[in-house]
Amino acid sequence: MGNSFACFSPTITKTSPPKDEHLPPWISPSSTNQKSRKISSSPTKNEVFDESYIKQQAQIASMLYQHHLQNNSDLLSHLDRSVSTKNPPTSSMKQHQKKFSRRSRTVSSSNPLSVHLSNQDIVATSDGQEKKHFVLVHGGGFGAWCWYKIIALLKEDKCEVDAIDLTGSGLHFCDINSIKTIQEYAKPLIDFLAKLADNKEVILVGHDIGGACISYAMELYPSKVSKAIFVAATMLSNDQSALDIFSHQACLSDLNQNAQKFIYANGKKHQPTAIEFDESLLQDFLFNRTPSKDIALASVSMRAAPFGPVTEKLSLSTANYGSVSRFYVKTDEDFVIPKLLQEAIIQSNPPKEVFEMKGSDHSPFFSRPRALHRILMEISNLPLK
């Protein structure tokens, strides 16, 4: 299985990060400007936050999250009713609401802020069939919290669900500038799969850079992954990095350039150590079709993402990574990974099947949760061969 890793980040020092800078032209081109709207719920962009402040924001995000779960009818009434272009809905809203009211929730008692909602004690449905088990892996800057709508919908279909916080994300706190490799970044996912029973298989779902993380996991534990679903994600080929994918600069715009900023913890003469989002452009860049409540949740929950894993070329073999059935879900109103770039990813490394969500931004778990849920369920029911 042995992956080889090539990390191009220098050794991290304890120097303070300098003033934020726009992405340089070698990663993002210029094109037409996009209108932006200010989000004022966060501190100023140049402020340096300590760990206590970040944890405080996580608590706020958790309260918003719990509020969504407790108000069942409000949650369901706001979930998107759009349909998959390949699989129309088969049940009414009233049926969903009735089932949802009976749904049990489990939150880790050792960590009241946890968004881990798996029920490991129940592994089969009432008819004796093994439950489908989804493992959800977020993208850069997000955390397990972003999947809350999808978790609710999948559990309504009696699926097991685990949402993973990657290293330095969500409720996992560390110096984000110190994460140099996908091995480090994806460690919580790899640890989860390592502890999984040998006769157990899961469906991996990766969003954004989470696609690179599930690719790495597929190479290490192919026998524990039945299917892999890439949602507006970096679906890598052998000896390719996420940065290689984003080198298709013709697909990117000024909004892409201005919304992402580098952090240089080791000084401007060295490679960037992290990427963060301009909070004033969050709505236009990531959430252009997302409800305002979810934008508020994201504005107090999103954090910087490590840059090192973006530059790392993965060694992916046909015997391991190639043995897992891959599926790609396109988002057609995506400014982060535009539709043209997603199509280039698909053409360079064709998956088993491609699905498309109309009217979805880069965050379909917020903007089109019902459509995404239906696609996930449809893929889970497809035969493996």
Automatic annotation (TrEMBL):
PANTHER family: METHYLESTERASE 11, CHLOROPLASTIC ISOFORM X1, METHYLESTERASE FAMILY MEMBER. Keywords: Hydrolase. Residues 28-45, 84-94 have a biased composition (Polar residues). Transmembrane segments: none annotated. The keyword Oxidoreductase does not apply. Pfam families: Abhydrolase_6. This is AB hydrolase-1 domain-containing protein. The keyword Protease does not apply.
